[in-house]
């Protein structure tokens, strides 16, 4: 089995990033992560300065996320940023209050997706658990995927949130098929609390998830842990070490 590149979503270390932006990115790279989903730099830092930090760390920019639950954002401004930092994806997450709301937002996503395509950027939709609520007996996420053009709007599925929504991540990944170039990987603790866990420390089968990811054409596995019971950098280190133990990542020094 080929080993997919492993990126990170810095939401995991959001507090540390606020206190020490550059130092936090250095720590991520030292843990072994190769790519990052990242947004525009903080106040007082230029994009060129941000790019210089990322270059020194050897972190490839995968893409960025649009503002949460806001479809009427300045698309071209974010696309300018993604192009500038060398990313390839622009991702959005939304909430919904009715089936009509889903349908209306799906059409807006098609329009944003076309704007992205004209700039050679792929537009993605990132799920949480609420997209597995139903309108007229159909999951919100299924409605979205049906009502959006599969070339204009692809998926960034999230293993934890699929499970939290009541579905099996592997089965749902197979259902979505080759429409999922990025995959957020995060684990879930056993028990009723459904708390987040480091990769390999919870109940999800990441060997099967990764085999499926490779089969359906996922380009990046992206580690994210929304909440941690320990220091978030330690959580990211544990996740990466467990991916190595499972044979899903090359151990440091073994890359050809």
From TrEMBL:
**UniProt key word NADP:** no
The record's annotation in SUPFAM superfamilies points to: Xylose isomerase-like (SSF51658)
Pfam family for this entry, one: AP_endonuc_2
- Tell whether Cytoplasm is among the UniProt keywords: no
Q: Where is the Xylose isomerase-like TIM barrel domain?
A: 27-225
Query: Which keywords annotate this record?
Result: Isomerase
- Enumerate the transmembrane spans: none
Q: Write out the GO MF terms.
A: isomerase activity
Please state what the protein is called.
Sugar phosphate isomerase/epimerase
Origin species: Alicyclobacillus fastidiosus
The uppermost taxa in this organism's lineage are: Bacteria, Bacillati, Bacillota, Bacilli, Bacillales
